[in-house]
Specification:
alpha+beta; 4-stranded antiparallel sheet; 22 strands
Amino acid sequence: MKTSRRVPLSCTAAALALAISLALAGCGGGGAPSGEGAEAAKTADGKPAEKKVEAVAVEVAAVARRPISASYTGTANLEAPSEAQVVAKTSGVLLQLLAEEGDKVKAGQVLARIDPDRPRLEMERARATVSKLENNYRRSQELLASKMVSAEASDQIRFDLEAARAAYQIAQLELSYTNIVAPIDGVIASRAVKPGNLIQLNSSLFRIIDDSRLEAVLNVPERDLATMREGLAVRMVADALPGQVFEGVIDRVSPVVDGGSGTFRVVTAFPGGQGLRPGMFGRIEVVYDQRADALTVPRSALVEDAGQASVYAVRENKAVRVPVELGHLSGELAEIRKGLSEGEQVVTAGKVTLRDGAAVEVINAPSAAAATDVGQVAAAATAGN
């Protein structure tokens, strides 16, 4: 026979209370936080924990001393300062063409020939007239000596002879015009006639350009008037000849500023050849000052705000906005005259989301060796520009 044992009522109530408490904790009830939740809400000393600030990822570059140059950059088309239009000085049918586009020619070289028959006959007639008047004048002189003709009649024959000689010289000149000759040394840029064409007086036949020296005209703002002077070296790159740099000089500087555009003309000159052609589009840089040991930063580090240039310097893992005084700007470099010290790090990428005092995380962390390499590359780029 089994004997039943009753569980005390107090024990049953305690177990029930424990179960309810556990159920409330599992459902996120209003019980006190425990475990990791309690640690997140409070620090070890019982004070509320501060919210962690997320750092902004940035790239930086070192402030370093590098060579830099001050320059003005502009664009212009190359022109040939010496150019000539070859025109016909007489009329007639073009019989022979002796030069083509692209040919190099010398001054006086025959380029084409016009039918010379009619001018030659005119010259022969003029010569015959001269011979006749020379004989008449000689006889008149003999008769004048014997007083068989008047001095007035002899003088008239002499005047007629002089006029005939002038007409003969004109006829010779007209005959010479049947040979079309080059007036200058250069290259034939265009030809406008073909053999068999009837050539009219003063019609254009050829265009010759002297490409031994080329010029490009820059329209420079008046603020740079004091920096431009004759003899300054210039560099040019042409879109048609990538990878090549051409050296030249400033040949002339206009003393007058155009009131409408606020610019003045600067004429730069380059030696011909080297693949350069008149009409090519060039990007020209005039270097008017150079410094071998300037404090510089990449131009990508600059922040412009209301005309005041500044940079974000990384100090104690925070971005500090520092106003700077700029010097020369050249290529990818900017000279810093005030505001930074050599060796400081400035933000070059990630500036858009930065605020003064924001925490930053440097993701490229340049070493001293890397900074030196960057300086060498930047210096080489500056020299190349």
